[in-house]
């Protein structure tokens, strides 16, 4: 065991706001653009709705270990696992336990939520034999992978590499691989019947560990060097079970390993503090450095929006927006970003304290928002929590950051391309990942539109004559019955004056959903009220600061 960190939370309800895929049927599969594994819709990792990884019988149920290898590689890469970690985890995982398919899967009762009340939530009731133990049916494959499936040993690679394997059907009718002419002493003990041995099995994914040339090299190395296999497995297992705990500062308990690992996205600590007066002085410098308020706000937003509360990765801390791969992401508008970073660096070099770029990027956004509120006639102070560090490229696992690339951002009214999922649904997913509520989403969208922060400077949803002032105009005009909303193309609408017939503004689905969805409309009407102008600004600032500080686990906020 490499170590243990506590700190996971229990939840008590299904996560209905998580995007699991657009399919509405179990084992549905409409997440590929074409037939290759890499076209799997990002950020999904499982190949089919309802599976954890890949289909154990082969791609679409057709055994072919070389094809399955490609699916496994894509799936595990999305979990930030490289080839070596993938082989170690699959082999190590399948060293213990067994697959269950000793019966007829079609005889199983309905799933737990669909089962009658007297099933008491157990579901998939099995009417055959004992209904459990040797009669269990789950995946439908049947058998163990190793000679002693009740304990850790190294027989997985011995069996996989030293025997020929042929395709067979399990008693439940699933494809599985079984060895040709296996010696009696190599056969696994039956899990339930003393003195009986059974054939071992391999899933198509296990066979990939032998047939794929890259996986095979690793399998052979592990077979020859069991100590090395154990070391890689222990580390990969620790990664698998801790990767969604976030930065090391969130780990609890005495068994947390001392070693800092690159997949923990380390960020150096800073040794300065800033007084309110110093913060004000820096804000003035940032506002006068030649950048527009929208440029400052966009950069702060882009640096923070990568945060996802599913695994606590991303966020403004570390200022990884300066580094590959983030600096080149289309969503970050690389040219604008480059310019903004250069200007902020200049401000930085003129400061007496070595304030981090991460802090300055966030502070630039705060300063610009305060100015924009002032333009709307409201004085507000955007709370700022200094102490972010700047990561280096060496501290950054660039490849594993690729999956954090924003492919859409409703907050900046942007889609990289048209997806099968509607833009407003993608906005919900982003909102959930940022840990925001529906009212927070509403107030942020309304504010960001009038601040002119759309990607590429488009004007969709900018329902105001006073762009750059933090007014509630977005909501006022969205809910104004003077206008009608006319579709132009799939994700574009004209906002037309009912009397004159002239087009006043343009909008996307993300803008219009705040008028069409009854719950969101209620929030929009609330913020449109004349007597809520100040509340709108204050709520905007609160939601904004929540995003900026989403990854400040070092501060326990
Ligand atoms: C490469 C992709 C993988 C595939 C296709 C796969 C497939 C399967 C299947 C079909 C079963 C049998 C389930 C049942 O019938 O009860 C199973 C069981 C199991 N898997 Fe995997 N698996 C994969 C990777 C992993 C990984 C990465 C781990 C852990 C590190 C793991 C650990 C286990 C364990 C411990 C069992 C036995 C469960 C039991 O005894 O009830 N598997 N796997």
TrEMBL record:
Positions of region (Disordered): 94-145
Reactions catalysed according to its record: H2O2 + AH2 = A + 2 H2O; 2 H2O2 = O2 + 2 H2O
Catalytic activity, EC: 1.11.1.21
Biased composition (Polar residues): 135-145
Gene3D superfamilies the record matches: 1.10.520.10, Peroxidase, domain 2
Cited CDD domains: catalase_peroxidase_2
BP terms from Gene Ontology: cellular response to hydrogen peroxide; hydrogen peroxide catabolic process
Cofactor(s) required for function per UniProt: heme b
Alphabetic keyword roster: Heme, Hydrogen peroxide, Iron, Metal-binding, Oxidoreductase, Peroxidase
Any one GO molecular-function label of the UniProt entry: catalase activity
GO cellular component: cytosol
Residues of the Plant heme peroxidase family profile domain: 1-253
InterPro entries attached to this UniProt entry: Catalase_peroxidase (IPR000763), Haem_peroxidase (IPR002016), Haem_peroxidase_sf (IPR010255)
Coiled coil regions in record: none
Family from the record: Belongs to the peroxidase family. Peroxidase/catalase subfamily.
Name of protein: Catalase-peroxidase
Annotated source species: Caldithrix abyssi
